[in-house]
Amino acid sequence: MVITLTGKVDFPLTLDPSVWIFDDRKILFENAFKEVESVPASEEKHWDRSVYQQKMKPPINKSLTKAERKLALENSYVMPISDFLNTASIQADAMHAVFLTDTGEEIVPLDELKESMFLFAIDGRSIKETGPAHCYLPSRKEDPIKAIRQIKIC
Predict the structure, then answer these.
(1) Helices (H) and strands (E) in the chain, counts
(2) Which pLDDT band holds residue 46 (cuts at 50, 70, 90)?
(3) Is the pTM of the predicted complex or chain greater than 0.90?
(4) Which DSSP letter does residue 141 get?
(5) Distance (Å, whole) CA 2 – CA 128
(6) If we measure between CA atoms, which residue out of 110, 114, 111, 104 comes closest to residue 145?
(7) Burial, 31: exposed, middle or buried (Cβ in 10 Å; 0-12, 13-18, 19+)?
(8) What is the pLDDT of residue 57?
């Protein structure tokens, strides 16, 4: 299943959460909502190819070892939605997003959508019944939006 991103965007997108397991931008679910510690300037390296490649949008995929592939198929992952929203190029007059789900519609402020995470894999497997993804908003970490079919920017 895919999720379409339409409405007040310059470039409508079709999101396929089933392939995000191979994306370097994915985050372990248990680490997704923790505060990130900043690296002191004295510890930063001047130039490191691996760091540079990971900051590219989208990041360049590195080859996975056998252990890393096995680990990827055992964990739950989320994907930040902000990169996709930037790619879609949301129009300046957009105010909110409407999630069309199997159970109806949910309206979300655009600022909150930009900070959201999409759960796409539970224990290394795609979400089938209530999927293809669950949207975890900053204000609704305990009650995600499920069974998303379309996101319409209004």
Answers:
(1) 4, 10
(2) low
(3) no
(4) S
(5) 12
(6) 104
(7) exposed
(8) 59
